[in-house]
Amino acid sequence: MVYVISFTKTKTVDLVEDRPHYQKKEFQRVNGRKPMEHTERVIYVFQDTDVLCFSMVTHEYPNHCGKSYCLIDTLDSIPYFDIHKRLSLG
Fold first, then answer.
1. For residue 2, which phi and psi values (nearest 5 degrees)?
2. Is residue 89 part of a domain?
3. pTM reported for the whole predicted model
4. Complete DSSP assignment for 29-84
5. How many domains does the chain fold into?
6. What is the pLDDT of residue 5?
7. 87 lies in a domain?
8. Cα–chain-centroid distance for residue 9?
9. Does residue 86 sit within a domain?
10. Do 37 and 62 form a contact (C-beta atoms < 8 A)?
11. Which superkingdom heads the taxonomic lineage of this protein's source (predicted)?
12. How confident is the model over 30-58, as pLDDT tens digits?
């Protein structure tokens, strides 16, 4: 049996503040200083209730300078995943 568990959290961040010191001025000139709202998603896939076989962390930006995009922060697949087991979403 395979189980999919996910968490979603909406955050507001100051993207200029997260830049290295030498990039802040240029980043602010191009993107402005307005705080950004983004959605962080974490997805875990377990096999047989206790074996973690896949994990992914994403950050989704719905409107950053007129564009929407998603960053995959972490993507990990464990070799124990057996694709022949039945998938159960819940």
1. -115, 135
2. no
3. 0.63
4. HHH-S--EEEEEEEEEEEETTTEEEEEEEEEEEEEETTEEEEEEEEEEE-TT--TT
5. 1
6. 92
7. no
8. 10
9. no
10. yes
11. Eukaryota
12. 777 778 888 999 999 888 778 888 888 99
